[in-house]
Write a structure and sequence with these properties.
four-stranded antiparallel β-sheet, seven-stranded mixed β-sheet, 126 residues
Amino acid sequence: QVQLVESGGGSVQAGGSLRLSCEASGSTFVNGCMGWFRQAPGKEREGVAAIDTDGVNTYYADSWKGRATLSQDNAKNTVYLQLNNLKPEDTAMYYCATRDGKCTYSWQARRHYTFWGQGTQVTVSA
């Protein structure tokens, strides 16, 4: 079992920034994938970014390239998602998820992830 806890969400004005954290505990995957997703009310959950847990590769959704940056602190078992130039349409619940195996081209497929956190709310006002 892997437990994931997100934090760092909040309310910001358009153009602002937030750094989200996802702390993992339990039987974490040495060669796994950690993904970030978001879900706005009435919409499907969609991928934001993902990182191989060995830190070799990162992946970003097209709408987030240049605005999101992934990093990780292995000593803390924590992955960070820096979000910049936030827009009102970025308002959503943000989730992290993990699975065994590298992220690869399928990183945006929700069904491939085994464990999910409870989410952290991001609200962006105009």
